[in-house]
């Protein structure tokens, strides 16, 4: 499994903001924000429900990963999605254990567990 999700009530913009704030509480900044809905409309004239990809990064943990494996940047940042469905919003999180596990180094697997733990706390905070 490469990720995990949670259903959240609220407007799309509210959920994006709450997710961004929850990431910040766990030490993550959002480096990139990709408006998939807007991009597909502009480039392909496709109408789709709101969908954003947030590129989240915890500088301290990213630095640790880069120190262990200089090419790890190919697998960063941690992507978080917010998308609208008929019955509410879905927030999805890339599973850092799976991604960092691709490198097959025990030190990175341990770091992946730490990042996943933080992402799970972000997920759990969205239910309150």
From TrEMBL:
Transmembrane segments: none annotated. It holds the Pfam family DUF302. InterPro entries: DUF302, TT1751-like_sf, UCP021774. Residues 34-96 form the DUF302 domain. PANTHER family: SLR5037 PROTEIN. This is Uncharacterized conserved protein, DUF302 family.
């Amino acid at each position: 499994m490469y990720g995990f999700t949670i259903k959240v009530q609220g407007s799309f913009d509210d959920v994006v903001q709450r997710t961004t704030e929850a990431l910040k509480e766990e030490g993550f900044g959002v480096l990139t924000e990709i408006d998939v809905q807007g991009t597909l409309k502009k480039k392909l004239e496709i109408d789709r429900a709101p969908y954003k990809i947030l590129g989240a990064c915890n500088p301290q943990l990213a630095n640790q990963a880069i120190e262990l494996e200089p090419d790890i940047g190919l697998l960063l940042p941690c992507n978080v999605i917010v998308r609208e469905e008929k019955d509410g919003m879905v927030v999805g999180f890339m599973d850092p254990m799976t991604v960092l596990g691709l490198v097959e180094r025990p030190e990175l697997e341990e770091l992946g567990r730490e990042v996943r733990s933080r992402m799970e706390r972000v997920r759990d905070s969205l239910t309150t």
